[in-house]
Amino acid sequence: MVAVWGMLYLIATLIALLLVLLLLKIVRRPPKKKKPSRKQVEPEPEVEPEPEIEPEPEVEPEPEVEPEPEVEPEPEVEPEPEVEPEPRLSLFERLKQGLSKTQSSLVGRVDSLLRGRTEIDEELLEDLEEVLITADLGMKTTQHLIQALETRLAAGRLTDPEQVRELLKAELKKILALESRPVDFSSASPFVMMVVGVNGVGKTTTIGKLANQLSRAGHKVVLGAGDTFRAAAAEQLEVWGKRAGVEVIRHAEGADPAAVAFDAAKAAVARKADILLLDTAGRLHTKVNLMEELKKVRRVLDREISGAPHEILLVLDATTGQNALTQARMFHEAVGLGGIALTKLDGTAKGGIVVAIAAELNVPVRYVGIGEKLDDLRPFDADMFVSALFERS
Ligand SMILES: Nc1nc2c(ncn2[C@@H]2O[C@H](COP(=O)(O)OP(=O)(O)OP(=O)(O)O)[C@@H](O)[C@H]2O)c(=O)[nH]1
Ligand SMILES: [Mg+2]
């Protein structure tokens, strides 16, 4: 019996052990099942972040939109730093700086001729004559200056090289003073200025600078985009108009310049503007003669505003030297000039041409351009101009 109970006890113990083992297996299994399932799920989210990274570079190309607004404000921002350097240099210093190339080709060479001389003779005057001619002063002015020196020499009143310098300076001031009268914008309302000149001389830039200066001085200005030849001409004027805060009257490219003049004159009257500045083409695509076209524009202006244009301003590029004088004669003959703006004096050694123009044409030099900045267009001041040329640095 005892053996039977013993057997039963053993069996029961074994069953209990088996049960315990089974239970343990059951308890262990679920975590085992969960672990592999996690591993299977894990790679999935690993794939997900990848597409999340992809759209990021897609967002990067957005900056393509950014440069656009960056480009637009640039032309508007430009004039600001242009105005800033102004107070640092006086008008005289800026002029002197702008004329530095002409200074060395004209006065610099005169000075090296005079250097070390103790007496003045005919030979020196001959050398001086050559320097003056090659500095673009023109034959008429050169002869006038040499004659003045010879008269002094003959009278025994030219003994010192410094006297030669002083006489040249005084004579040049005299010649230029005769032809340096500012424009009287108050002589008519609206005062109409027609700006003419061959292509590339600086007409549009000069109008832009002038519009800005006149508008800052309190005048109400209207601009007329009369150059309908060049595709970007009206846009260029509009940029200047925006800078100056003035209205620009324009037509489409290829339109009749006289029609632009007509509308611009009407607008100037309607807006009660003080000044109308009319740009014109430097050349045309039709066979119509440029001078004939300008005459037509002039007639249209006069019909709309009696007496207009009150000034025909010829823009000349100083770097072209004697060519500028030829252009001035041609335009003066054809349309009659009120004044001259001589641009790009900063980039040339041929600034002496201003003297030739004043002396040979009897047309006042109204403005000189000594750079591309807004305030680099200056009313021509003969005294300051000659002093800046002769100033010793
Ligand atoms: N250095 C210098 N450059 C100037 C001056 N005035 C004008 N310019 C430059 O000359 C170039 C031609 O000027 P524009 O005003 O376009 O000349 P434009 O006579 O209107 O030319 P078209 O419309 O083609 O007939 C531009 O690059 C100007 O910046 C100046 O006084 N000095
Ligand atoms: Mg132009």
TrEMBL record:
Residue ranges of domain SRP54-type proteins GTP-binding in the record: 364-377
Membrane topology label: Peripheral membrane protein
Gene3D superfamilies reported in the protein's UniProt record: P-loop containing nucleotide triphosphate hydrolases (3.40.50.300), Signal recognition particle SRP54, nucleotide-binding domain (1.20.120.140)
Residue ranges with Acidic residues bias: 43-84
Key words, A-Z: Cell membrane, Cytoplasm, GTP-binding, Hydrolase, Membrane, Nucleotide-binding, Receptor, Transmembrane, Transmembrane helix
GO cellular component: cytoplasm; plasma membrane
Subcellular location: Cell membrane; Cytoplasm
EC number(s) reported in the record: 3.6.5.4
Chemical reaction(s) catalysed: GTP + H2O = GDP + phosphate + H(+)
Family: Belongs to the GTP-binding SRP family. FtsY subfamily.
Function of the molecule: Involved in targeting and insertion of nascent membrane proteins into the cytoplasmic membrane. Acts as a receptor for the complex formed by the signal recognition particle (SRP) and the ribosome-nascent chain (RNC).
UniProt cross-references to PANTHER family, sorted A to Z: SIGNAL RECOGNITION PARTICLE RECEPTOR SUBUNIT ALPHA
Subunit field text: Part of the signal recognition particle protein translocation system, which is composed of SRP and FtsY.
Protein name: Signal recognition particle receptor FtsY
Gene name in the database record: ftsY
